[in-house]
């Protein structure tokens, strides 16, 4: 039985048609899951005894916050592969993920402010969790700005990879900030260590919305990396010709 050779998709030329087939699948999945998550969060989930209906912001805020950290970790992993293996596709994937990671970080910060105003009485406080999440947004913006500032794509990839790997130290700071320091921010929304502290519909709403956000991130990143590949082919056509001969 012949096993598929997944390493062949490490080449931009062979990865491009695969990405073209996957984009619509993940796009449709994202739409369905996000609508289902919103339906569960806004209609099926019960009213909170303490916060009323304000807590329903959680169904966007929590998945967006999770995605902001997860995408950065995936982006940093691609950056590490790009540096260690000199893999062009890995560097392109890191660049493709950065805008989506920045978007989810911004959504997390905005929805957190909307949730914080009625619960804390303020739109913003210099809380450890909020401040470290804001730093994450600056890391994403810095990654994109640094890449735009360097003309040579290969040098830009290496510089951005170094910056992304240094910035990884901020992810555990975000996650553990509520345990390490005194903070107004609530603890984990899902306390797996001591049992789930929410109703089943609330948990399902968060997970379904997270699946929708993740599907959206994959669809957009794949579409964006295809655009990046076309951009680099136009900028350096000799690389594309060399790759075709090598294949």
Describe the structure.
The protein is mainly α. The protein has 8 helices and no strands. It has one domain (14-240). It has helices at 12-44, 58-85, 88-120, 128-149, 153-167, 170-180, 200-235, 237-246. It is a multi-pass membrane protein. It is found in: Cell inner membrane; Membrane.
Key traits:
single chain, mainly alpha, 8 helices, Cyt_c_assembly, Cyt_c_biogenesis_CcsA/CcmC
Short description:
This protein is an all-alpha fold and 247 residues long. The protein is built from eight helices and no strands.
Residue ranges: pLDDT <50 for 5 or more in a row? 192-196, 240-247
Provide the residue-averaged pLDDT.
Answer: 84
| Global structural class | mainly alpha
Q: Please summarize the sheet with the most strands.
A: none
What is the molecular shape?
globular
> Helix proportion of residues, in percent?
over 70%
- The rounded Rg comes to 20 Å
Counted by DSSP, the helix tally is 8
What is the domain tally?
1
Series of H and E elements: HHHHHHHH
User: Got a strand count?
Assistant: 0
Report the β-strand fraction as a percent range.
under 5%
First-to-last CA distance: 24 Å
Subcellular location: Cell inner membrane; Membrane
Membrane topology: Multi-pass membrane protein
Domain Cytochrome c assembly protein: 22-185
Transmembrane segments: 21-44, 64-85, 97-116, 128-150, 162-182, 202-225
């Amino acid at each position: 039985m012949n096993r598929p050779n997944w390493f062949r998709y490490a080449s931009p030329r062979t990865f491009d048609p695969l990405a073209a087939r996957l984009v619509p699948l993940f796009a449709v999945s994202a739409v369905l899951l996000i609508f289902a998550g919103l339906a569960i969060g806004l209609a099926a989930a019960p009213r909170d005894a303490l916060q009323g209906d304000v807590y329903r912001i959680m169904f966007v805020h929590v998945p967006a916050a999770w995605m902001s950290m997860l995408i950065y970790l995936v982006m940093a992993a691609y950056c590490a592969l790009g540096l260690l293996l000199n893999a062009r596709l890995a560097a392109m994937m890191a660049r493709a993920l950065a805008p989506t990671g920045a978007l989810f970080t911004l959504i997390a910060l905005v929805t957190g402010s909307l949730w914080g105003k009625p619960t804390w009485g303020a739109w913003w406080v210099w809380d450890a969790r909020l401040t470290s999440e804001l730093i994450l947004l600056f890391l994403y913006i810095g990654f994109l700005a640094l890449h735009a500032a360097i003309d040579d794509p290969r040098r830009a990839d290496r510089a951005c990879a170094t910056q992304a790997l240094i910035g990884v130290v901020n992810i555990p700071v975000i996650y553990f900030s509520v345990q390490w320091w005194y903070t107004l921010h609530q603890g984990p929304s899902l306390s797996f260590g001591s049992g789930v502290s929410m109703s089943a519909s609330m948990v399902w709403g968060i997970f379904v919305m997270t699946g929708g956000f993740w599907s959206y991130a994959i669809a957009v990143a794949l579409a964006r990396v295809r655009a990046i590949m076309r951009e680099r082919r136009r900028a350096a056509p000799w690389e594309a010709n060399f790759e075709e001969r090598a294949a």
